[in-house]
Amino acid sequence: xxxxxxxxxxxxxxxxxxxxxxxxxxxxxxxxxxxxxxxxxxxxxxxxxxxxxxxxxxxxxxxxxxxxxxxxxxxxxxxxxxxxxxxxxxxxxxxxxxxxxxxxxxxxxxxxxxxxxxxxxxxxxxxxxxxxxxxxxxxxxxxxxxxxxxxxxxxxxxxxxxxxxxxxxxxxxxxxxxxxxxxxxxxxxxxxxxxxxxxxxxxxxxxxxxxxxxxxxxxxxxxxxxxxxxxxxxxxxxxxxxxxxxxxxxxxxxxxxxxxxxxxxxxxxxxxxxxxxxxxxxxxxxxxxxxxxxxxxxxxxxxxxxxxxxxxxxxxxxxxxxxxxxxxxxxxxxxxxxxxxxxxxxxxxxx
Amino acid sequence: xxxxxxxxxxxxxxxxxxxxxxxxxxxxxxxxxxxxxxxxxxxxxxxxxxxxxxxxxxxxxxxxxxxxxxxxxxxxxxxxxxxxxxxxxxxxxxxxxxxxxxxxxxxxxxxxxxxxxxxxxxxxxxxxxxxxxxxxxxxxxxxxxxxxxxxxxxxxxxxxxxxxxxxxxxxxxxxxxxxxxxxxxxxxxxxxxxxxxxxxxxxxxxxxxxxxxxxxxxxxxxxxxxxxxxxxxxxxxxxxxxxxxxxxxxxxxxxxxxxxxxxxxxxxxxxxxxxxxxxxxxxxxxxxxxxxxxxxxxxxxxxxxxxxxxxxxxxxxxxxxxxxxxxxxxxxxxxxxxxxxxxxxxxxxxxxxxxxxxxxxxxxxxxxxxxxxxx
Lengths: 351, 375
Hints:
The complex is a heterodimer of chains A (351) and B (375). Chain A is built from 15 helices and five strands. Chain A has 351 residues and is mainly α. The longest helix of chain A has 30 residues, at 193-222. Chain B folds into two domains: 2-36 and 172-374, no CATH class; 49-157, abc type-2 transporter like fold, CATH 3.40.1710. Chain B has helices spanning 2-13, 15-32, 59-71, 81-89, 103-108, 123-141, 150-157, 175-206, 209-217, 222-251, 261-285, 289-307, 318-324, 328-337, 347-374; strands at residues 49-54, 73-74, 95-99, 114-118, 163-165. The model of chain B has no long low-confidence stretch (mean pLDDT 87). At the A-B interface, α2, α4, β4, α5 and β5 of A face α4, β4, α6, α7 and β5 of B. β4 (100-102) of chain A pairs parallel with β5 of chain B.
């Protein structure tokens, strides 16, 4: 036990002094979060705005339009139409024959078209109408805020929770004589490799968890984006993500004889690709995959974390949580067993 | 030309970085080219993506469904609240309409008859509510002797108004223009990432202490060495920029006459020059490969996010744009996004990019002189 604690302290100091861990593990995720925030903040806060209609003065239609809640009527002269449309002051202009002039196609223009059309359609229907028919609402609305862009943040958190992969690779190379000088020394001494490996896993796991905590605090208190409503369930997935990352790193570290640079490249490619599929570069990629290859996002570990984080925190649903957690634990077990198979009884004829 | 030859050799050794960025760029371009359709000269109604679940299956509910189907795009859904909420949250569907079993009776009693999941903050929620209320109000108006005159309703709802779109020179928002804007904006990101990463890594090899010492005692004149280095940088940068320009012509060969193509080409060349000067500055600040890779990632992604490469400038906040003005990418994007009649319209933004180039160059020279003095 003492050995493990001592190894933990040494490896922890080593990792903390490593410039690339400090940058890629701690600073880079914060920089990414700032960029995402700068770019997407405007898209996350949608507020419904009134629709502006231009109309010639003294037109009877203005009374009907003015009664509609979401419409602002601007009485303007026909000579000003182009200017007001160009400046965006009005979305559309209704002329004397109930025809529209617009600058571009869009949702506001379509809504205006449907409202104005209704007047013509009532005439066409040719039935007595007293007006009360149109004050009835036949719709029971259930509100669900749409905010697909926030998936990017959950995906970023999911990605960095697997960043323990790099520390995992470094730990694996420490106990292999063909990969590092320390590995040679450990293999030549009666020191137990397992202690070193266990200490490495603990340190990688805790350091990455610390990096995650700093990122989450930064997002919550500095950027003021409140992503977590259910800390308990969310923590389970972030911890499982960390565990998965470290174990996958060890697997990549021990399963081949490539150089440490190549292994890091493999790790970058794997985490980036899995995050890309889970929607980090834009939720539309995730949506597209969900439609055509739904199976992929159910087995992609980063997607499992991303999906569960937004379901738990924004949709209040924990239905897929158990399946997701079991899946991640299954991956951890498989990679741990495979790593063990690669590591056991390894001896070197010459180094 | 030994230095020049080796500059290119080392650059080719780092071909994986080039291949990676160029692949990302072209994948994004191909994904985006689906939107590049024809010029939009007439009004196009905005269709919503809606899901419909009809539990009633009466004549009235079928007519409502057909009406909504004609006006909107239908997406698959299922009667499961969690599933529907996720569809709305992810914007797969703008609304999901559930028609209950006792739909007809509720309509006749003028009660709330359909359940609609939607985001109340979006204009799409007004649109779907309007469509449903209009259809059911019309149906109720025609209700007589226990029957709806749904044929009359359908006929009346076919009545429409004419919509005229204001003519303009280049048509903003048209598919082709959007494609060119996206394509050339995105070249901005790849140019920064590639120039800094590749040229930076090659330069850090050349400025390695041992190699630097060997160069100093060699017969190679410093001026000649520098000339060959800059020629190498220029060759590499030109190759990258020309590849992007030629690729855009290949992708959109028939449509380049429909946009002000020269604007994009001039803008990209000026921007590339500006970034080459930025690379010069970075190379004079650090020779550490890890720092160069980090700077390449952070500067390319960072300036792209805040300058409007990834999302349009209109969506970005004023504060963000105020910061973005301190980078040439902001002016580069502004030119790509502008609608112009002649090249003189973009004079200011081009001038600003050149100004940045000069500033980077001067700063680079200051750092380089400091470095020489230290040595």
